[in-house]
Amino acid sequence: MSPRTRIGRVVALGSQVSLSVWFVLPLVPVLLWAAARSWTFPHALPEEWGLSGAAAALADGAASAFVSSFILGLMTAALATPAGAMAAYALTFGRIRHERRISLLLLAPVFVPPFVIVMGANVALLRLHVPSSVGLALVLMVTAIPYTTFVMRSAFASYDTGIEEDARTLGAHPLHVLLRIRIPMLSGALTASAFLAFLVGWSDYVITLLIGGGQFVTVPIRVAAAASGTGNEALVAALSVAAAAPPLLLLLTLNVMSRHRSLWRRKAAEPQAAAIFPLIGANS
Amino acid sequence: MRRPLLLLLPAVIPVAVVLGATLMLGLAQSLGLVPVVGDAKFDASAYRAVIASGDLWPALYVSLAIATAATAIALVVGLATALAVRATRIGGRVLATLAASTIPIPHIIGAAAIGLLLADSGWLPRLLGADDGSWPQLVAGPWWGAVVLEYAWKESAFIALVVVTSMAADAEELSDTAAVLGAGRRARLRHIVLPLAAPALITAGAISFIYALGSFEVPWLLGRAYPEPLPVLAYRLFTSTDLAVRPQALAVAMITVGLCLAVGVAALGLLRRRSVLT
Fold first, then answer.
1. Considering the domain boundaries, does residue B14 fall inside one?
2. Is the pLDDT of residue A267 over 60?
3. B174 close to B195: Cβ distance less than 8 angstroms
4. CB-CB under 8 Å, A44 with B109
5. Nearest-CA distance A54 → chain B (Å)
6. Does B19 sit within 8 Å of A12, measured CB to CB?
7. CA within 20 to 30 Å of A40's CA: A24, A29, A258, B6, which one?
8. What's the total number of domains in chain A?
């Protein structure tokens, strides 16, 4: 839908600029507050610059919260990625009888709000004496499975099994086929689904709050505690940067990696689709 | 494949067990069958109590209003973004990168950021020089402005992503062909772009709506104390020191999940009808 006239180009540029402002605007005060030492109302910019917010965040226990968040993210990715990949493989190639119904079941957690899951299942977890860390892992895994299954299904849909058959004909052991062909060929999609599952654990607030019962203090929980009080702007901003930076850096790294890989494979990817979300484009 | 069912189990068992336990035990608790205190009974008294308290109807109303307003804005901005991304090369790539970078930001961080932007002493009133009390009360205000805008901000990027990745390159070709044949901008939008984007808009819109309906942290942080949206109401009842109101919390949770499932089924129905027609 590229513009053909001069007016069309002006309209396109104008909408690109205003939409860019829409997406960036909420992040500007976070960055300003994170770098402000003193910023009183009604000044539009901080009067003194400094990292007092970061110092307050460290004193508030941000480092251990950061580690807890990371563990939750990694745990969710480690559980949901292989489960989703195996299910997607079976659903694509296994000639399962109730394929539609099972697909719908694996998608269903998207339709059930996390607070409902925790409130409904909490009784079972308590009566069966499931440790809260196990309960937390289980619920986060279930919340992430729709995403990992979906990404892997779209990857398998365009997956060429011919190479595997060639390898098997040449006498390759099934384990070899899995480790040397299937996993390397799907590495882009596997990374994408692991990233999405990591995000589920890293971003979660209400599941950690209700199941953890104060045991697991993650970055989102610190942010919520600081943001619900008043006069904590610098602290909130520093914690927000700590919560937003790792996934953004991860996305950037994966983006660069997938671009290298596709260059190496000399594949021309659809440029815009690859730019807005490189990970899903990376697996094809 | 020799044992496809075995490969399904690591995903199917956790999902079936957790969702089954959630819905069945949730329903049982809301009907008084699994009381924290007192004897088990079987009746709808928790539902009656939460209606009698006068909290349920305002909660339903405000939750649906927030989700509708936020999803409507997100659909318009998301579609506009998806189209603007394809309009020019460099500008499109910048916009795509900025939109994509908001997607991995957690909602609670988005809520904190919107608070720093839109509160009475936030950055926007400072920037616009509204220091005389003329700034509308968006955070904790009567119109839930900050809550709606937080959802709209995060979900518009998600909707744009889904539309861009699902609308194949043939949309571009069809649109170009139509332009050559004399179709104007509006005609191309109505007869080519919108029909091709519709499945993505329905899917992503339904997911956004359900998210806004069932999310606790955003209205809790940016909303006002009364009326409480459904998740905030359920949370207050669930964490109350009065354990006798626990079934009411589950009643609110079951009503919320019922609404979410209804929206999901409606979206699937819409998608199916479209695929039959085309």
1. no
2. no
3. no
4. no
5. 16
6. no
7. A24
8. 1
Of A240-244, A258-262, B153-157, B189-193, minimum mean pLDDT range: A258-262
Residues of B in contact with A281 (CB under 8 A): 165
* B116:A123 CB<8 A: no
Contact indicator for A56, A234 with CB cutoff of 8 Å: yes
Q: Do B253 and A120 count as a contact with CB atoms less than 8 A apart?
A: yes
- Residue B125: domain span: 56-227
Chain A: give the shortest CA distance to residue B214, in Å. 5
Cα A217 from Cα A225, distance rounded (Å): 10
Question: What CATH number did the domain enclosing B115 receive?
Answer: 1.10.3720.10
Backbone angles phi, psi at A49, to 5 degrees: -100, 150
Contact B246, B252 (CB under 8 A): no
> In this structure, is residue B178 part of a structural domain?
yes
- Mean pLDDT, chain B, rounded, equals 90
| Predicted ipTM of the assembly | 0.91
Asked if B108 and A223 come within 8 Å (Cβ–Cβ), the reply is yes
- Give the minimum alpha-carbon distance from A238 to chain B in angstroms, rounded to a whole number: 11
B26 contacts A120? CB cut-off 8 A: yes
Measured between alpha carbons, how far is A127 from A133 in angstroms, rounded to an integer? Answer: 15
**pTM, two decimal places:** 0.90
* pLDDT tens sequence across A126-150: 889 989 899 999 999 999 999 999 9
The residue among B109, B106, B110, B138 whose CA lies nearest residue B122 is B138
* Side-chain-side CA neighbours of residue B183 (13 Å): 17
Tell me how many domains chain B contains: 1
* Rounded Cα gap, residues A7 and A164, in angstroms: 53
A118 inside domain: yes
In a domain, A9, yes or no: no
The pLDDT of A178-201, averaged and rounded, is 90
Partner residue opposite B109 with nearest CB, options A15, A93, A244? A244
- Number of alpha carbons in the 13 Å side-chain half-sphere of residue A138: 23
Q: Which domain holds residue A111?
A: 28-254
Residue A274 is assigned to a structural domain of this protein: no
Q: Indicate yes or no: CB of B14 within 8 angstroms of CB of A142.
A: yes
Give the pLDDT score at A3: 67
CATH number for position A37:
1.10.3720.10
Lowest-confidence range among A164-178, A186-200, B170-184?
B170-184
Contacts of B81 in chain A (CB under 8 A): 19
**Closest residue, chain A, to B35 (C-alpha):** A123
Calculate what percentage of chain A has a pLDDT beyond 90. 48
Query: Is B106 within 8 Å of A42 when comparing Cβ atoms?
Result: no
Res. B138: pLDDT tops 80: yes
Pairs across A and B, CB distance < 8 A: 310
> Does A13 map to a domain?
no
| Strands in chain B per DSSP E | none
pLDDT band (50, 70, 90) for residue A1: low
Arithmetic mean of pLDDT, A219-236:
90
pLDDT of residue A277: 41
Q: Does residue B79 lie within any of the structural domains?
A: yes
Q: What distance in Å separates residue A75's CA from the closest CA in chain B? A: 15
